[in-house]
Design brief:
Blueprint (H helix, E strand, L loop, with lengths): L1 E8 L2 E7 L9 H8 L9 E6 L8 E6 L5 E2 L3 H15 L3 E6 L2 E7 L5 E4 L24 E2 L2 E2 L2 E4 L3 E6 L8 H9 L9 E7 L5 E7 L3 E2 L4 H13 L6 E6 L2 E7 L5 E5 L2 E8 L2
Parallel strand pairs: 2-3, 4-6, 12-13, 14-16
Antiparallel strand pairs: 1-2, 1-19, 3-4, 4-5, 6-7, 7-8, 8-18, 9-10, 11-12, 13-14, 14-15, 16-17, 17-18
């Protein structure tokens, strides 16, 4: 029996299993099965809690995509794990460790969770790209869309700025762009457009997961890309399919993400 908690951040849903005692044996096939929406529990990402490696962290979060591959960052998942661990520890703030570093998280007065997602990496070899180029306008196009912004927020992102994100055939563009030879580690693909009120509309194709309701690290990449392109002044509300995230790229370089973290249900999965 594998106990789990199902949570979501704006519809970006997660199966969270606790392996802090090291007893679980989650091989590739089992990870895929747990994430399967017909034969398992179903999720956009599987999150495995482990003992922290760094003594200043409260928990280590390992991230897996539905295809069983590992991911380096997951903003919505971090908020959910932070909320879960804060509830378990009766605290208002925790440090969630990932392979990308320790992410400081705190509960907000409205019940949402704010996470310091760290600093973006913007050099071509940090995204990473397969060849040197300006990351403010990548030499990449699909149909009428071209010149996206490259950002690494613990994982690679490719942000297209378009007139109307709603009109983009994301199911067609996403898989092609994710696997473009420019991205040796594949990439998350975002299409964004600026709303009249200064907020941002964002749609996302996640690497290894496909179209999702929301992507926290993607929203981080979007606020960085929009700021670098002069569309916003470091702060904006980003509207995803599942709801809004309040984003800020602070002057010290850190990206702050604030939004909901919601429990769905608890259960046990039988192998």
């Amino acid at each position: 029996m594998i106990p789990f908690v199902k949570m979501h951040g704006l519809g970006n849903d997660f199966v969270i299993v606790d392996d802090r005692d090291g007893a679980l044996k989650l091989d590739h096939d089992l990870r895929v099965l747990l994430a399967d929406r017909r034969r398992g529990v179903g999720c956009d990402q599987l999150l495995v809690l482990e003992k922290p490696i760094n003594g200043s962290a409260d928990v280590f979060m390992r991230i897996f995509n539905p295809d069983g591959s590992a991911a380096q960052a997951c903003g919505n998942g971090t908020r959910c794990v932070a909320a879960l661990v804060m509830d378990q520890m009766h605290r208002e703030g925790v440090g969630v460790e990932t392979v990308a570093g320790i992410l400081a998280s705190k509960r907000m007065p409205d019940g949402g969770v704010s996470v310091d997602m760290g600093e973006p990496r913007l050099n071509w070899d940090q995204i990473p790209l397969s060849r040197e180029m300006d990351t403010l306008s990548l030499d990449l196009s699909w149909g009428p869309f071209s010149g996206p912004v490259g950002v690494n927020m613990g994982n690679p992102h490719c942000v297209f700025i378009v007139d109307d994100a709603e009109a983009v055939p994301l199911a067609e563009a996403g898989p092609v762009l994710e696997h473009d030879p420019l991205f040796p580690e594949r990439a998350n693909i975002e299409f964004i457009s600026l709303n009249d009120d200064g907020s941002i509309r964002m749609r996302v194709w996640e690497r290894g997961a496909g179209i999702t309701q929301a992507c926290g690290s993607g929203a981080c990449a979007v606020i960085v890309a929009a700021t670098r392109r002069g569309l916003v002044d470091r702060r904006a509300r980003v509207h995803l399919d599942g709801g809004p995230l309040d984003m800020e790229w602070r002057e010290d370089g850190h990206v702050i993400m604030t939004g909901a973290a919601t429990y769905s249900f608890r259960g046990e999965w039988t192998q």
